[in-house]
Amino acid sequence: MSAFANRLRELRLKFYWNQSQLARRAGVSTSLISSYEKSERFPSLDVLIKLSDIFCCSTDYLLGLEYDQTITIKDLSDNQIRLIIELISEFKKEQISSLPKKH
To answer: Which residues contact 35 (CB under 8 A, 6 or more apart)?
Structure first.
């Protein structure tokens, strides 16, 4: 399976969407999403960009060229960006506080 097929399926499942739900959002057929996930076909540039917008990630991440998923914040207000940064900071604090204490 290609990196793209794996990433697409992984992201779709993270959002708890079936192939039909993703297809509607992307403006393509369910069978086309299925063929992407089976590595039978690859998306056009337009569809690839649409999928990256849907999942708020880079096209490089979808293609398997980047290993860290990033979140696109274009079109968000300064206040929305600030709230996202605060939320991420809170999650990081929870992760650190849940680590076992060293003795």
So the answer is: 41
Burial code (b: 16+ CB inside 10 Å, e: under 16) for 60-88 equals ebbbeeeeeeeeeeeeeeeeeeeeeeeee
Here the tokens at position 95 are 């992760």
H or E segment at 34?
Answer: helix 30-37
Domains of the chain: residue spans and CATH: 3-63 (1.10.260.40)
Q: pTM higher than 0.90, yes or no?
A: no
Those residues with Cβ within 8 angstroms of residue 26's Cβ, 6 or more apart along the chain or in another chain? 33, 47, 50, 51, 54
Per-residue CA distances from 30 to 78, 93, 100 (Å): 36, 40, 45
In this prediction, residue 52 has a pLDDT band, given cuts at 50, 70 and 90, of very high
User: How large is the average pLDDT for residues 75-92?
Assistant: 88
Q: Give me 50's structure tokens.
A: 């649409």
